[in-house]
Write a structure and sequence with these properties.
It is a single chain. The chain is mainly beta and 470 residues long. The protein has four domains: 36-166, Sandwich (Immunoglobulin-like), CATH 2.60.40; 178-261, Immunoglobulins (Immunoglobulin-like); 271-400, Immunoglobulin-like, CATH 2.60.40; 406-470, Type 1 dockerin domain. 11% of the residues lie in helices and 44% in strands. The chain has three helices and 27 strands. The protein has helices at 2-32, 416-426, 449-459, and strands at residues 36-40, 43-45, 50-71, 77-84, 90-91, 102-108, 117-130, 137-149, 157-160, 162-166, 176-181, 185-187, 192-199, 209-214, 226-229, 235-244, 255-261, 271-274, 277-279, 284-305, 311-318, 324-325, 336-342, 351-364, 371-383, 392-394, 396-400. Helix 2 (416-426) runs antiparallel to helix 3 (449-459). The longest helix has 31 residues, at 2-32.
Amino acid sequence: MRENKNKGVGIIAVAVAITIVMFLGGNTAIAAQTTATVSIGNASAAPGETTTTTVMANNVTDLATFDINVSYDPSVVNVTSAENNPELGMNMNNLEHAGDGWVRLVNFNIVSAGGGLSGNVLISTLTLEAVGDAGDESTLTIAINTLSNSTEGAIPASSVNGTFTVSAEEDITPPETTITAGPTGIIDYNDVTFSWTGTDDVTPTAQLVYSYKLDGSWSAWTSATSKSYTDLSNGNYTFRVKAKDLADNEDPTPAERAFTVFVPPVHVYTNVSIGNASAAPGETTTTTVMANNVTDLAIFDINVSYDPSVVSVTGATNNPDLGTNLNNLEHAGDGWVRLANFNIVPEGGGLSDNVLISTLTLEAVGDADNESTLTITINTLSNSTEGDIPATAVNGIFTVGLVLKGDINGDDLVNLNDATYLAKHVLGWEGYEVIYANDDINGDGLKNLNDATYLAKHVLGWEGYEEIDC
């Protein structure tokens, strides 16, 4: 008995397993099927304008016959026509109730078995008129009355509705552009800036874009509202700028402004100058005599005069690039010296721009606060072909002062700038020829980079560098 009972249980278990497998297999086949839909596309038009949308049978097999309602809000949109797919037979649409908010799309189609259409099939193309106001919306609702195949068999399908939106009216009016700032007429400068703005009936000013040009090609569109041009040559110019709105309407009459640049030529005059200088009583300092803005300088003969009770020239070292030194310092104690050279160079072989003539060593012989003018007199200034170089004299001032120890650059401060200035002076940098305090900072009788280093450590408060000998 027990054996038969066990056999019965086994048979039942096998039957249940077979049933489950068959059920799962069937469900897998069902899941693999694709459901057909009838859909209507979204659409949009401005008030009073028309557009089209389509009614489609999607993922359908052997479609032959359809009967479909499309309904909507008649205060927003109206169907004005419907063109069915000619491959689906005769058009039997009913648009009599279009003004009431619905139409019926129908066909009459006789085809042989299997002769229907498959895949994604166009049913009808509807023309829609926007009758509402901008921003209004209506659902386009699909109701499937009949969807049949070639043997009159029903095709199961679901509806996919659409939405109609009344859009804003089409913007066809271009913006206006106005130049708000910029030169006009004849100007005597050549760096210019233009500013502008725009207005439009729809697009806010902040959302307009612009393109501009100055007698050339139009620029790329930009939101910028100004443009600068520098170093323009003398001549006539016209600046133009145009605006574009969000509907891509361009201003057909760009704003423009004509102007003429006329910058008179700048005449650069040559001068011979001597730098200001200062030293404490009994101390010496240096200054330079320069030929500035000169062309092809070859020969010079220059007097420097001063008050000998205040200052005296104790030395003069000429620029070696200007030939042989012929200076006369015999009258230094009388208040004047003569700086001269002997220089033979080929045509065009002189020096140009700002040229060092001589470096003078000055001794303060007066009392603190005494001053003397350092007066330049140009006897001769010639080029490489012995031609005269017209030039003016620029005098300097020598002051006997109580020099602040370590104030190398003469700004009445002692800081790291003085250490840097002293280093550049020692290394012979141009523009650092003159110093305003004794440069033997460490008192070793030498003037070199060690003095600049010592001064830097003194300024920074290093131990052992408290005293400076200047």
